[in-house]
Amino acid sequence: MKAQQFMVVGALALVFLLYTSYHQQHRLSQTLHLDYLYRDGHLQTHSRVDWHAVWAAARSSSSEQDFIAAMHAADHGGADNNNAAAAAAGAQSGASSCPPQRECPTCPSRDTTTPAPAAPLAASASATATKPAISWTSFVVDGQCPQISKELAHSVAREGAVIVTWANYALWDFVKSWLFHTKESGLDNYLVGAMDAQIGRELVAGGVPCFAMFETGANHSGVGSDHLQWGGEAFHKMGRQKISLAQLFLGLGLDLLLVDVDVMLLGDVMEYFSRYPQADILVTSDQLASTIEPGDTGLEVPAKAQSPMNIGLMFFRFSERTVRFVDSWLAAINADPQYWDQNAFNDLARQGWDPVSKVDPVQKRVFLGANGTLAVGVLPVASFSGGHTFYVQRLYEVQRVTPYAVHCTFQYGANPGKRNRLREAQLFYDPPEYYTGDQYVSVELRRVPSATWGEHSARNNSAMTRYHFRGLDLQLEAVWPAVRLAAVSNRSVIMPKLACYCDKYWTELDKCRVPGATQTRIPFLCPMDHVLDPIFMDDGASQFKLRWREHSFLENPRCPGWVKRSRVTFYSSETASQPVEKWVVQEGGLVVVLPANLTQGALREVLQPYQAYKVWHLKDPEKFFGGFDDQKLGAAVEGRIQHLKPVMPPEPSPPPPPALANATSAAASPLADGSDTAAAAGAQQTASTGSSNDVQAGAGTGVELRER
């Protein structure tokens, strides 16, 4: 009996020893498979590891501490002299891959028939990046972004490169959009600089790798937590902080992509930068036309791309040359508080340059700047776009290339304008309630300008401008009834797609194009801020605050299908005496024919049964609204409309006859190129009746009114 008990106890002890041995080996292999070891304050990568030798070393080590110490002493993940015999035995076994999965669950599955390629300097984000042994979260204290350090920067870097942006709390929604697209592009080696304590707490709570740009105990970086006005004192101070960031991260020995938070990364930019190892700096440009042929995905031609380089997106490749240039850049703007950082960069980078002869001998599109001490490449403006080349020209379509990034430049309406531009392009990351938390009014454009570019460009500049503004008037005639209905029903207006026949710029245009923007296709889809300034929607000009959604709102995949389907279409009929409901497949469902020109109280009564529908679509907006019963509300709404209406700027040439001077009035100058009184009378008739003269003048009437 005792012998049996002894055997049972012995068997249990053997099982325990085997389990302990396996568990120890499992932990050792798991520790090693992080593939990073932290040595002397640096993260070291092991690109080539003999995992069989590692496993043999793990099995022969007497303790976890001994094994880790041995691995720290190794050069390439092998064992030290104490475990040399085990490693040699493993190597002689002929098994160069990991042990079986049942023995080493943490070992990666690996195909030994094809060796893994060496990772490039700026590896593609699509490749699986090796994770560091430490996480940025280990530096967080009390829920706040940590101060920057070499260890923090290296904890997020991949292949020696890091992406850095920064923001204050006023731009927290921009940060969320930036993060969304950066992650969608497969990039995870980023840090966000927190300019104030409030956004710092949000970043940490959201699990966003970050660093503090404000001193411990302070609330902000010195530029405040509000919006930065272009050209102001805080704006210039931010420029100095930006260059200081470049100096800081280059000082840590890292390649750096420094990018403004209003630049959305739409593709694997790091892979693109790796194609040009000759360049010390790659930078975007304010160039408004491509200097390369359609289909060419390379850099711009330096001799032709001589517009100012835009420092909203800059890639710095670490080298002594790059560090010296950034040091001189910062010194230049510190010497002059009014020296704009972008102007300083352009002045220094193009000092002593010759874009024809002083270029890289291998890559001719990389020029030698800063008196021959710096290699610079101008990124293609169709792929790394500004606000004009992306939103107005859609140059990536013209050039047939993939967009990698878009910067919100060349736009109006400050940050509200930037948000709306991004939303129109379906690039802004709004929360679900943005799509579901309101009810909406949309409209059908009944009269739109229809001249071809050949017809339009045959006019002189003055006539082209008048045609453009008269065309806007025709289209906006459908928007104002929607604004009035939104006011009485407490809804938001979904802006229609408006056609523009002239660009918008702060200097004189050249045949309705911004000078240099020769690839602009006219007409083009207007960004809303070209026509209706977003700031004017809810400023202090009127007590009525207009809520709106962008023209692509219902096309956005983030807008739930049930919102899009919850729609009723309204027709207005002068012969109808009461609402008539019809189901019309072509209109997407329910159609209601209403009496025309109903006033505020009557409209509320007839529309009450349709309050549950998310979208009210007006098919005949000009006949829909008959007037306000509440005179105070009416005055506020009409004041808002007058505040929003675009006004034709004064012409630089001698003014036309008085009858044609005001292109935004009901008796505006005609769309056709002419100045006689008969043409003016025809234009007045067109504005009031929408007759077939619109077609002759270049303004199509659209779908004719009909009852269903």
TrEMBL record:
Residues 186-422 form the Nucleotide-diphospho-sugar transferase domain. GO terms for molecular function: arabinosyltransferase activity. GO terms for cellular component: Golgi apparatus. This is Nucleotide-diphospho-sugar transferase domain-containing protein. It holds the Pfam family Nucleotid_trans. The lineage of its organism: Eukaryota, Viridiplantae, Chlorophyta, core chlorophytes, Chlorophyceae. InterPro entries: Glycosyltransferase_77, Nucl-diP-sugar_transferase. One of its GO terms (biological process) is cell wall pectin biosynthetic process. Residues 84-124, 645-708 are annotated as: Disordered. Residues 112-124, 660-692 have a biased composition (Low complexity). Residues 647-659 have a biased composition (Pro residues).
